[in-house]
Amino acid sequence: MEFDEWIGRTHEAEDVLTAGLLARYRATIGCNQQSATAPPGIHWCLCLPDTPIDELGADGHPRKGGFLPPVPFPRRMWASSRVKFLRPLSVGDRVHRRSTIKSLTPKTGASGNMVFLEVEHVTRVNETVAVEEIQTLVYRDVATTAAVLPVESELASRDGVERDTIVPTAPLLFRYSALTFNTHRIHYDSDYAQSEEGYPRPVVQGPLMASLLLHFASKRLNGARIRKFAFRGKSPAYCGQPLLLEFRPDEGQGMALEILGPDGNVVMTGSLLTADLGAG
C-alpha cells in the first residue's frame, strides 16, 4: 500500500462564524453562556466539506481519492487530536483553514490491519492563527466479529475526581452530525451500523464527545482560557447508553480527563492546559 504522493497534499476552505451557528452549537452541547465569543470546539463546525450527495460513498463519507487517499479499508474513525487554541473565535469572524496530509502509517494490531493518517489543520482569522490541530484518522479492515453492547453497572466514586453523566440520545447525535455536515452512516443508520460495520447501535461521534469534555471542563475552570487540548478514543460509545465524564486537576495548570462507558471501561482520554503555550 503506497500513498506517498498524498504526503503534503493540501486543501483550503473558508467560512464565517455566524450567530446562528454559535447558538445551535451551544444548544447542542448544553452551554448557557451568552456572549459573542464561541466555546472551544466550535472550529470543528467550520470549513466543512460540502460534497454533493452523488459523490458520497456507501458509508456516507465523501469517496476517497480526492484530498484523502484511497486507503482500501472500509471503516474510518477519528482516533485523536492535539489542539492549540491560540485565539478565541467570535461571531463575524471570517476563517480560513489549510489542511495538510502529514503522514500515512500502516500498522497491524489486535483488530487487524490498519492505516493511521495524520492531518494538520491550521485555522486563521485574517492573518492570525486561531487554532492549530493535528488530527489522526484510522482506517480499519472489515470487522470479523460484531461488537457487544456494554453492560451497564454502577460505578464507585473516586477521590479527587469530579464527574458528570451524559446520555447521548439520537437527537444529540443527529444535531451534531448536522452541525458538522457529517453523513457517516454509523452515527444515525442503525441497520448500516450493525450489518456493515459490526456495531450494536449508532456510534457517538468522537469530536462530539471531545466537545462535551471541553464544555464539562470549562464549567469548572472559573473563566480560565483553555490553551491546549488533546483527546484519544479508546473504544466506541453507543447511542442511548450513559457516559461518565471525569476530570481531576493535574500538576501546574493541567487537567486529566476521561470518559467512561456504562461498564466502567475507558471510552476516551483527554488532557488540557490553561497555562501559556510558550514554545511547546
From TrEMBL:
Gene3D superfamilies per the UniProt record, alphabetical: Hotdog Thioesterase
Entry-linked Pfam families: FAS1_DH_region
Domain FAS1-like dehydratase: 11-124
Gene Ontology MF terms in the entry: (3R)-hydroxyacyl-[acyl-carrier-protein] dehydratase activity
Source taxon at top rank: Bacteria
Protein name in UniProt: FAS1-like dehydratase domain-containing protein
Lineage of the species this protein comes from: Bacteria, Pseudomonadati, Pseudomonadota, Alphaproteobacteria, Hyphomonadales
